[in-house]
Design brief:
Pfam families: Alpha-amylase (PF00128). One of its GO terms (molecular function) is alpha-amylase activity. The protein is of the alpha/beta class and 525 residues long. It is built from 15 helices and 20 strands. It has an eight-stranded parallel β-sheet. Strands 14-15-16-20-18 form a five-stranded antiparallel β-sheet. The termini are far apart. It binds 1-deoxynojirimycin. The site of 1-deoxynojirimycin has 9 residues, from loops.
Length: 525
């Protein structure tokens, strides 16, 4: 039998205009009935993903982990957690995905490990084995500096020495169970290289790099401007936790390895809004792609969305890399909810799907977006996100966008699992949103996505990488792909506007009398 690793990787720049689909592994499909999604569950649904038309998957972490942050706390980066399957299941998934024409990319979590990683247990047991992490003596009775954890509270936790006396503090930019690695340590670098090669040899086509703007820290760990807090995009305020210049050396290391495997790529999770600083991550010897989160951060407002698109295009052009668009992921509220929930939220999300899929470059869809799923308001007892607990319940965390996908039938778990319960409860009213129901309905959000992805892949109007903007009525915008001529018009105002001339390729909602209704987008040629 051919092993996954024997599958020839496509040497081209396949990722330049790819449609990626993020699989939040816990929530996509459960094959064994424990209520948590797994690798065999994904394999069972490859036919669906092929029908949807996506080119590649991004799988969130499935590595050995105590799951304090649902897998972003990795205890062994070169093994599969039994919750999700085993290495054979992974090989089967890669090989069958490739047979369906779908590439597989996986998460890489280099900023931190789990507190159950062998390096950290050694570090707790032996003060001489602490160099792979960031241990420092306290300042007076308190932590070494004023850094805060992204999940709330201090970014430092004090340890007790093996003899019970108070010891130093270790840094964790995220949960207390996610100690930050010391990237000055040669073993930390060598281990990352080993991990990259391990998965590349098993046939993966690329990586998504978690906290790609983290990892390197300034040597003297200076205090942050307390006003920087955890607000994304506050780069005018001094925040030494992220985007330290030393990070680029680490990305060069990653790139050197990937360049030995033709066709392999990396995309960085880079929460940096300054265009010039973001572009640095995309230099020719660094990452192939960088998420640009401006569309996630922008409200449903034509002027703000246009600014977000222009800024993303400018960054990409400066870096000579394709822009990378996304409307949501497992860390942010789903767009239906961000845009107001209910019918209006759904309409706006459908319109934004056309805005996004009409743009040049790379698109990352988040599983369930194609079904128009909203966030779920979960009861307190169901919440699992460490963010909720570290913020003392003030931040309800990210579970609401991670509820398992509804596949078929009229009752939870809607075919997600052969068992009866799911790791997060699924709302009864998702019966109307199942894949089964939507596949039968030509007007469903799933049908819209299928149609849009198909056109994006096959229609000549999508050629070229440049955009131009047309004048448009207040509250609207219109862009045109310079190469192929696709025109996309968004009406984010509250009145219908006349459609520009052209043949309609696809609309996010019904059009009548030559008018584009509010909260609607259209593609024309
Ligand atoms: C970003 C990931 O997307 C998020 O889910 C995780 O909690 C943090 N990084 C820490 O790894």
């Amino acid at each position: 039998m051919r092993r996954a690793g024997d599958t020839p990787r496509d040497a081209s720049d396949w990722w330049r205009d790819a449609t990626f689909y993020q699989v939040y592994v816990r929530s996509f499909a459960d094959s064994d009935g424990d209520g948590v999604g797994d690798l065999d569950g994904i394999r069972d649904r490859l036919g669906y993903l092929e029908l949807l038309g996506v080119d590649a998957l991004w799988l969130t972490p499935f590595f050995r982990s105590p799951m304090a942050d649902h897998g972003y706390d990795v205890a062994d980066p070169r093994d599969v957690d039994p919750l999700f399957g085993d290495l054979d299941a992974f090989d089967r998934l890669v090989s069958e995905a490739h047979a369906h024409g779908i590439k597989i990319t996986i998460d890489l979590v280099p900023n931190h490990t789990s507190d159950e990683h062998v390096w950290f247990t050694e570090a707790l047991a032996d003060p001489r084995a602490r160099d792979r992490y960031i241990f420092r003596p306290g300042r007076g009775d308190g932590p070494p500096n004023n850094w805060v954890s992204v999940f709330g509270g201090s970014a430092w936790t004090q340890v007790a020495e093996p003899d019970g006396t108070p010891g130093p503090w270790y840094l964790h930019l995220f949960d207390v169970r996610q100690p930050d690695l010391n990237w000055e340590h040669p073993e930390v670098r060598a281990d990352l290289e080993q991990t990259l090669r391990f998965w590349l040899a098993r046939g993966v086509d690329g990586f998504r790099i978690d906290v790609a703007h983290g990892m390197a820290k300034p040597a003297d760990l200076p205090d942050m401007d307390p006003r920087a807090g955890n607000t994304i995009g506050q780069h005018d305020l001094y925040d030494p936790r992220f985007d330290d210049d030393g990070v680029h050396d680490i990305h060069r290391l990653v790139r050197r390895v990937l360049d030995e495997y033709p066709g392999a790529m990396a995309v960085g999770e880079i929460w940096v809004t300054d265009n010039e600083r973001l572009a640095r991550y995309l230099r020719p010897d660094e990452l192939h792609l960088g998420f640009n989160f401006r569309l996630v951060l922008a409200p449903f407002d034509a002027a703000e969305l246009r600014t977000a698109i222009e800024a993303s295009l400018a960054t990409a052009a400066a870096a000579q890399a394709p822009p990378t668009w996304t409307l949501s992921n497992h860390d942010v509220a789903r767009e239906v909810t961000r845009y107001g929930d209910g019918h209006q939220g759904e309409q706006r999300a459908r319109a934004m799907a056309l805005v996004e899929l009409g743009l040049p470059g790379v698109v990352y869809l988040y599983n369930g977006e194609e079904l128009g799923l909203p966030n779920v308001a979960l009861p307190d007892w169901a919440i699992q996100d460490p963010k909720y607990f570290r913020s003392g319940g003030q931040d309800r965390g990210r579970d609401g966008c991670r509820v398992p996908l509804p596949w078929e039938g009229g009752e939870p778990p809607f075919g997600f699992s052969p068992g009866t319960s799911t790791w997060l409860p699924m709302p009864q009213d998702w019966a109307k949103l199942t894949v089964e129901r939507q596949l039968e309905d030509a007007d469903s959000t799933l049908s819209l996505y299928r149609h849009a992805i198909e056109l994006r892949k096959s229609h000549a109007a999508f050629a070229g990488t440049e955009l131009e903007w047309y004048g448009a009525p207040a509250g609207c915008f219109a862009y045109r792909r310079k190469g192929g001529g696709l025109v996309c018009v968004l009406n984010a105002s509250d009145t219908a506007v006349p459609l520009p001339p052209g043949e309609i390729l696809l609309a996010s909602d019904a059009l009548a009398d030559g008018m584009l209704p509010p909260d609607t987008a259209v593609w024309l040629v």
